[in-house]
Specification:
Blueprint (H helix, E strand, L loop, with lengths): L2 H15 L9 E2 L8 E7 L3 H8 L4 E9 L8 H5 L6 E8 L6 H9 L9 E2 L2 E2 L5 E5 L2 H18 L6 E4 L4 E2 L7 H4 L1 H10 L2 H9 L6
Parallel strand pairs: 7-8
Antiparallel strand pairs: 1-9, 2-4, 2-7, 3-4, 3-9, 5-6
Helix pairs in contact: 4-5
C-alpha cells in the first residue's frame, strides 16, 4: 500500500475518533525550555523518523511537522499536493548534557538514503527529500563534516542538503506517534515502501540505529 493510501486511512481514523483533521492549519513549534536543544531533519516520511530518535537516551521528544517553506500554517494536504515549498521533517528536542548533536546526526544518516534525489524510497516528491536544517555555525560545521564522512563511507554522491533553520510547523495530531497508534499499518508501510530493505543494503548493521 502506498503512503497516500496509508495517509487516507489515518485521516479516516482521525475523523471517526474525533481527533483534529488536517484542514485546520498547523501551529509553529513551542519554544524550548531551559536546558533543551533542538535538531531538525527531513528524512522522507516523518512517520518513519520519529521512532529512531525517540529511542535514543537523552532525546525528549520527536515531533512530525513541516519546515523549509515560506508559506504559513501549511497543512498535510497542501504539502502533499505540492502547494507549499515545505519538507516533511522531524523536530528532535533533546538534552545536550545527555546526547550530542553528533550522535543525532548519526541516527539521521542511518535512517535515510542520502543518495536518492527525488524523495525517499517509494515516496517521490520534493517534500520527501532529505535535508539537515542548521541553526548556528557549530551545527553547520558538524553537519558538513558528517556529510563528507558519509560520502566517503558509501562511496557515492550525497544529495542531502544543509539548509538554514526555518519555522517548524507541527503536523496534525493524527500524524504524531503514528508508529505507536497504528503499529501494524506502520510496519506494513515501511516494508511495502522498501525502506528497511534499502537501509539494510546501504548501512548493514548500522541501519536504523
Amino acid at each position: 500500500m502506498t503512503r497516500i493510501a496509508f495517509a487516507l486511512l489515518a485521516f479516516i481514523v482521525a475523523c471517526t475518533t474525533g481527533e483534529p483533521t488536517a484542514e485546520a492549519g498547523t501551529d509553529a513549534a513551542p519554544s524550548l525550555r531551559e536546558g533543551q536543544a533542538e535538531a531538525v531533519f527531513a528524512g522522507g516520511c516523518f512517520w518513519c523518523m520519529e521512532k529512531p530518535f525517540e529511542k535514543v537516551p537523552g532525546v525528549l521528544d520527536a515531533t512530525s511537522g513541516y519546515t523549509g517553506g515560506k508559506e504559513l500554517h501549511p497543512t498535510y494536504e497542501e504539502v502533499g499536493y505540492h502547494r507549499t515549498s515545505h519538507y516533511e521533517a522531524i523536530r528532535v528536542v533533546y538534552d545536550p548534557s545527555q546526547v550530542s548533536y553528533e550522535r543525532l546526526l548519526e541516527v539521521f544518516w542511518h535512517n535515510v538514503d542520502p543518495t536518492q534525489a527525488n524523495g525517499q524510497f517509494c515516496d517521490k516528491g520534493d517534500q520527501y527529500r532529505t535535508a539537515i536544517f542548521t541553526s548556528d555555525p557549530a551545527e553547520i560545521a558538524l553537519a558538513e563534516a558528517s556529510r563528507v564522512q558519509v560520502g566517503k563511507e558509501l562511496g557515492q554522491p550525497i544529495v542531502t542538503e544543509l539548509l538554514p533553520a526555518a519555522t517548524f510547523w507541527v503536523a496534525e495530531d493524527y500524524h504524531q506517534d503514528f508508529y505507536k497508534k497504528n503499529p501494524v499499518r506502520y510496519t506494513s508501510y515501511r516494508t511495502g515502501c522498501g525502506r528497511d530493505a534499502r537501509l539494510q543494503a546501504l548501512w548493514g548493521d548500522k541501519a536504523g540505529h
